[in-house]
């Protein structure tokens, strides 16, 4: 007798997973630095700082540039005026739209759990016409906690109908924050082999890895049946 399993929710990180947003973040950061007569940073530097949310981003920028730490909040405020709708340089990774459409067509509830603030998150989803695919969006300022604390990811799964005590879902991301968040919940983690990770992929806990989004639906199906 065949058993029909209800599709598990699949929740995604955003920056470095679905989108390459580092060029927009880099441009906004350097605009603030130039405004304050501070030498600009390279794209690679800024990309390596992405993942922990805006506060951590600017903590790392301040440490790298020698800015007085007491200026952090004013720099963040200036940054956010540029960042809240920065989409012009951001790109979807290849195959993202097709993979999301395929999963949605197969009945998987989809969500976002990111450390990116909710405003810029919604702006970029709207920009790419992705908003309607996601049943929930949890941003870096949606809760007091940020990844790798499991609370935001748990909230995303619960909003998609999962059991809050033992959510049967799948998380897809690219970074240390994502891998540890999934492990802390715990749920199976699929790791995108590109993105903004600094730790070698083999050193992070994950159920499987993929290098192109055309591989993702089959991996999700495999975990669904595991």
Give the integer mean of the pLDDT values: 95
What percentage of the residues does DSSP assign to strands (E)? 5-15%
Please bin the fraction of helical residues. Answer: 40-55%
Per CATH, the superfamily of the largest domain is HAD superfamily/HAD-like
Radius of gyration: 18 Å
The major sheet is characterized as: 6 strands, parallel
Q: Helix and strand string, N-terminal first?
A: EEHHHHEHEHEHEHEEH
Using the coordinates shown, work out and report the CATH topology of the largest domain: Rossmann fold
Family: Belongs to the HAD-like hydrolase superfamily. CbbY/CbbZ/Gph/YieH family.
Cofactor: Mg(2+)
Function: Specifically catalyzes the dephosphorylation of 2-phosphoglycolate. Is involved in the dissimilation of the intracellular 2-phosphoglycolate formed during the DNA repair of 3'-phosphoglycolate ends, a major class of DNA lesions induced by oxidative stress.
Catalytic activity: 2-phosphoglycolate + H2O = glycolate + phosphate
What order do the helices and strands come in, and which of them pair?
Blueprint: E1 10-12, E2 19-20, H1 22-35, H2 43-49, H3 54-65, H4 72-83, E3 91-92, H5 96-105, E4 110-113, H6 118-127, E5 136-138, H7 151-159, E6 170-173, H8 176-184, E7 189-192, E8 208-210, H9 216-225
Parallel strand pairs: 1-4, 1-6, 4-5, 6-7, 7-8
Antiparallel strand pairs: 2-3
Active site: 13 (nucleophile)
Protein name: Phosphoglycolate phosphatase
Keywords: Carbohydrate metabolism, Hydrolase, Magnesium, Metal-binding
């Amino acid at each position: 007798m065949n058993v029909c399993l209800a599709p598990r929710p699949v929740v995604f990180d955003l920056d470095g997973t679905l989108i390459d947003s580092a060029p927009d973040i880099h441009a906004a950061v350097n605009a603030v630095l130039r405004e304050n007569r501070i030498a600009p940073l390279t794209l690679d530097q800024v990309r390596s700082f992405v993942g922990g949310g805006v506060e951590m981003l600017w903590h790392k920028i301040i440490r790298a540039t020698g800015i007085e730490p007491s200026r952090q909040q004013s720099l963040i405020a200036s940054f956010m005026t540029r960042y809240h709708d920065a989409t012009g340089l951001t790109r979807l990774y290849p195959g993202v739209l097709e993979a999301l459409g395929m999963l949605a067509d197969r009945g998987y509830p989809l969500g976002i759990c990111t450390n990116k603030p909710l405003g810029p998150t919604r702006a970029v989803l709207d920009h790419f016409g992705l908003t309607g695919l996601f049943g929930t969006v949890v941003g870096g300022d949606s809760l007091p906690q940020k990844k790798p604390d499991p609370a935001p990811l748990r909230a995303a799964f619960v909003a998609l109908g999962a059991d809050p005590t033992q959510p049967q879902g799948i998380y897809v991301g690219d970074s240390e924050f994502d891998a540890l968040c999934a492990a802390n919940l715990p749920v199976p983690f699929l790791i995108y082999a590109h993105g903004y990770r600094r730790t070698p992929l083999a050193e992070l806990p994950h159920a499987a890895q993929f290098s192109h989004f055309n591989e993702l639906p089959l991996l999700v199906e495999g975990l669904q049946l595991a």
